[in-house]
């Protein structure tokens, strides 16, 4: 007999729009921060509607609210990432305008975001100091000093086992959270904002987090703490502000004495019945109901062992395990995103085609992936288009979409999944990129209007604020954990708590997605805390110098492996040239010619490498070379001489790069469109200047640089210029703050912006650098050919981009290598020389050249997989 459901609770009495201030801390001290009447709107959304927030120095002020209530938007306004439409912000009694994240950081406001603002391609130490790198004369300190500083912060956070030289992308989610905290603490903070900092932490790590918070507040640092774990609020908080639908419904409530029932009612606007439905006795329904999903012997070699699973209607089956245990791989294999090694999946008795997502969707299976923004959403599309993506055939007739039917559910069978959230806007033009986490889950196209009968969820709580056990919330009981000393009274010095002595996490030895295993051994933190910069742990950490050396060797190995494949291709090409035309190819003059020709395109490639590393593209480099060369040879006659030609070429290149940079960085144009327009404009202007004629250079000092008499130790001057540009490019990319920030912008532009980097200015500088390289290449081409022509630099853009890509620079940005790009240029130039010596026709040359490029990329990818 099923148990009777519990009787409904008495309704919650109506609440005032804003509850009166019941301060925990004395009001005689001026507040550290005051935000008054903050409003902020996005397309289709009024995220903040007159929100007030007041924070005292040395307090933990908790900010609560449902998903979409406006908490994340409010802290981004506080961090300078968003500009409010209206309202005032006062810092230490003076009005301020937080125009950018770097402005907030300079005032002492640091933010730890729920969606981590880290650049995966950078190391831990590089992420910690991103935006305020320790420098000497503009060069990044990459040795022991930087690693020691990062290691000290990690040790203070109780995680000395995290290697400061390790790439952040190789860390677990919990360790990435620790790195984000270390970045915040690397600033001289007066106020630190923590958005769901405990979401990826286990109980021991939460205790360690609270130890850090208590140490900060004892030194007078204020903390704004956002969490849905109400027991944490009881334990760590002083006062509470509650937001709902972009409005503050309660301000400054005492965290210790406000009933949990009231907090839940304020967050939701109603008396929520957190009661689980009655469950049948074990095995009661299994005998009579056929399973809707059957998994038999499903496995993937190297990821998970054979698995058997049955799922019946109305049943919830949990799949638990640590990161790397194979849980995500199992769900993706059931869904058809991965092809199984063995086994089968049946839906209602019908086998599914292995490795076919289409078959799984057609059978009514939906997958809610862990990383919704990266794996499920079209961030540039509207909510409506995201929801209808998996079911477009329902809104199409003969291939034509019925947009009206797409916006409204046919037949009124179900309301729109986003329309129920006023704070998130309607289903119209609102872009999915602006939605908070809860809306992102509802707009998952794979779990949208199709109403899947079987939903697979990879960590459904990822990005979700987790409510606690319903029964406990209804009783209004407090967390059984210890209360924070001093809660509800004026603050007094507290004795920080640490983990129990010797508490450790078991090491994880299983590789995750092919990466080396994360060692999760956790030493016990110190029993005492000495304030910022003085914390220590009882367990000694691995010496930073040793860890840094290991990390450097690992990075160097990956670089060597990447370049080794190109060196192998180059060696094969030299062998082919020596076999087919031994006398001509191996001649000293021919080898000098190869290097000279590679020098011109190589200088262009160095600039292109910087642009691609930042996530951009420059299709106009060849046209800029042509424009700079013809303008220099037109304006700089014998009266101007050598310096006039060089100066004019560089100025024209910089001017063209400036136009590209302004259009892209400040005009908001897509790099492809802006540089394509520059390509057409520069080519047309070069043709107009020359009128289709070749302009001969008569300046003897310029022409002499191309003669053998000017060679230095048998090396042409152009090769020496190319070598100098290569060395300068390598130093800038790998040793300066400019290079570090270039990688950060390409790896995660939003993270770079939130770290205080002026992303737009950085992109402007990069296109200026590309234009400068084109100007230098134009001058080198004038020396090499002795003339200026509108056809100069033809197809340089394709060769430069291809050389950079096969050299190891990611087209998506975030990783670049100057040495690899130079090797790619040498490969292309050698190919062209071999073809010319063998008198191959131009069409055959292009076909062979394309095949060799593909082969080089495949060899490189295979080598990288084996090396990493």
SSE blueprint:
Elements: E1 33-42, E2 45-55, E3 60-64, H1 71-78, E4 86-91, E5 94-96, H2 101-107, E6 109-112, H3 124-128, E7 135-136, E8 139-140, H4 144-156, H5 173-185, E9 191-195, H6 203-218, E10 222-226, H7 230-236, E11 239-244, E12 247-254, H8 260-268, E13 293-300, E14 304-311, H9 327-335, E15 342-347, E16 350-351, H10 357-362, E17 365-368, H11 372-375, H12 383-387, E18 396-397, E19 400-401, H13 403-407, H14 437-442, E20 454-457, H15 470-475, H16 544-580, H17 582-585, H18 588-613, H19 621-635, H20 641-666, H21 671-690, E21 695-696, H22 700-703, H23 717-735, H24 737-747, H25 749-754, H26 759-785, E22 787-788, H27 796-806, H28 818-837, H29 842-867
Parallel strand pairs: 3-10, 3-11, 6-9, 9-10, 17-20
Antiparallel strand pairs: 1-2, 1-4, 4-5, 7-8, 11-12, 13-14, 13-15, 15-16, 18-19, 21-22
Radius of gyration in whole Å, from Cα? 31 Å
> Helicity range of the residues?
40-55%
Question: How far do the termini sit from each other?
Answer: 59 Å
Overall strand count: 22
Mean pLDDT: 75
Please give a handful of descriptors for the protein shown.
six-stranded mixed sheet; 22 strands; disordered N terminus; four-stranded antiparallel sheet; 868 residues; alpha/beta
């Amino acid at each position: 007999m099923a148990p009777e459901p519990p009787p409904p609770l008495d309704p919650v009495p109506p609440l005032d729009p804003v509850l009166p201030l019941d301060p925990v801390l004395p009001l005689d001290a001026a507040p550290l921060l005051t935000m008054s009447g903050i409003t902020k709107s996005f397309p289709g959304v009024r995220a903040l509607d007159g929100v007030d927030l007041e924070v005292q120095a040395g307090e933990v002020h908790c900010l609560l609210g449902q998903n979409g209530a406006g908490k994340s938007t409010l802290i981004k306004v506080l961090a300078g990432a968003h500009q409010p439409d209206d309202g005032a912000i006062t810092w230490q009694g003076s009005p301020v305008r937080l125009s950018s994240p770097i402005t907030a950081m300079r005032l002492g406001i640091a933010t730890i975001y729920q969606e981590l603002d880290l650049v995966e391609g950078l190391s831990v130490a590089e992420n910690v100091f991103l935006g305020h790198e320790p420098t000497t004369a503009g060069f990044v300190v990459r040795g022991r000093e930087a690693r020691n500083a990062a290691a000290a912060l990690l040790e203070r956070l109780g995680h000395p086992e995290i290697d400061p030289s390790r790439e952040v992308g190789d860390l677990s989610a919990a360790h990435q959270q620790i790195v984000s905290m270390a970045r915040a603490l690397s600033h001289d903070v007066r106020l630190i904002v923590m958005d769901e900092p405990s979401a990826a932490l286990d109980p021991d790590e939460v205790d360690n987090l609270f130890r850090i918070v208590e140490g900060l507040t004892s030194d007078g640092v204020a903390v704004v703490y956002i969490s849905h774990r109400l027991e944490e609020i009881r334990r760590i908080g002083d006062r509470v502000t509650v937001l709902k639908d972009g409005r503050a419904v309660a301000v400054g409530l005492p965290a210790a004495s406000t009933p949990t029932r009231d907090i839940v009612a304020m967050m939701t606007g109603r008396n929520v019945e957190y009661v689980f439905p009655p469950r049948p006795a074990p095995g009661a329904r299994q005998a009579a109901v056929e399973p809707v999903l059957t998994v038999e012997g499903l496995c993937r070699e190297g990821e998970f062992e054979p698995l058997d699973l049955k799922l019946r209607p109305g049943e919830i089956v949990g799949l638990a395990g640590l990161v790397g245990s194979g849980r995500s791989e199992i769900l993706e294999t059931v869904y058809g995103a991965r092809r199984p090694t063995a086994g089968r999946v049946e839906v209602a008795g019908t086998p599914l085609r292995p490795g076919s997502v289409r078959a799984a969707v057609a059978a009514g299976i939906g997958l809610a992936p862990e990383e919704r923004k990266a794996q499920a959403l079209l961030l540039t599309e509207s909510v409506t288009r995201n929801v209808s993506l998996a079911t477009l055939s329902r809104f199409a007739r003969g291939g034509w979409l019925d947009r009206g039917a797409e916006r409204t559910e046919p037949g009124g069978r179900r309301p729109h999944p986003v329309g129920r959230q006023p704070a998130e806007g309607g289903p119209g033009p609102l872009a999915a990129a602006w939605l908070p986490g809860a809306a992102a889950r509802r707009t998952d196209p794979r779990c949208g209007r199709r109403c899947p009968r079987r939903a697979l969820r990879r960590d459904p709580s990822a990005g979700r604020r987790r409510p606690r056990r319903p029964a406990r919330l209804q009783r209004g009981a407090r967390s059984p954990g210890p209360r924070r000393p001093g809660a509800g009274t004026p603050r007094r010095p507290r004795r920080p708590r640490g983990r129990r002595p010797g508490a450790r996490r078991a090491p994880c030895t299983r590789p995750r997605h092919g990466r080396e295993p994360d060692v999760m051994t956790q030493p016990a933190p110190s029993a005492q805390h000495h304030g910022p910069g003085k914390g220590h742990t009882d367990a000694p950490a691995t010496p930073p110098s040793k860890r840094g050396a290991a990390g450097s060797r690992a990075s160097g190995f990956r670089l060597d492996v990447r370049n080794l494949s190109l060196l192998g291709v180059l060696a094969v090409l030299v062998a082919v040239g020596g076999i087919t035309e031994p006398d001509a190819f191996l001649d000293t003059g021919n080898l000098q010619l190869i290097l000279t020709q590679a020098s011109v395109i190589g200088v262009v490639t160095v600039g292109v490498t910087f642009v691609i590393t930042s996530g951009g593209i420059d299709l106009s480099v060849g046209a800029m070379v042509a424009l700079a060369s013809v303008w220099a040879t037109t304006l700089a006659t014998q009266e101007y001489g050598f310096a006039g030609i060089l100066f004019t070429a560089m100025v024209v290149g910089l001017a063209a790069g400036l136009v590209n940079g302004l259009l892209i960085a400040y005009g908001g144009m897509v790099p492809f469109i802006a540089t394509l327009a520059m390509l057409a404009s520069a080519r047309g202007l070069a043709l107009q200047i020359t009128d289709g004629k070749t302009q001969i250079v008569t300046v003897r000092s310029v022409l002499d640089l191309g003669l053998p008499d000017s060679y230095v130790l048998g090396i042409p001057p152009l090769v020496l210029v190319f070598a100098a540009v290569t060395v300068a490019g390598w130093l800038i990319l790998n040793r300066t703050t400019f290079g570090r920030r270039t990688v950060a912008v390409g790896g995660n532009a939003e993270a770079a912006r939130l770290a205080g980097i002026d992303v737009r200015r950085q992109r402007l500088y990069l296109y200026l650098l590309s234009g400068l390289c084109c100007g230098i290449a134009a001058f080198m081409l004038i020396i090499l050919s002795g003339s200026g022509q509108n056809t100069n630099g033809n197809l340089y853009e394709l060769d430069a981009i291809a050389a950079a890509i096969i050299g190891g620079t990611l087209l998506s940005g975030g990783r670049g290598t100057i040495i690899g790009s130079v090797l790619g240029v040498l490969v292309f130039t050698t190919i062209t020389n071999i073809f010319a010596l063998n008198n191959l026709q131009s069409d055959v040359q292009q076909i062979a050249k394309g095949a060799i490029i593909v082969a080089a990329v495949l060899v490189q990818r295979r080598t990288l997989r084996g090396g990493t």
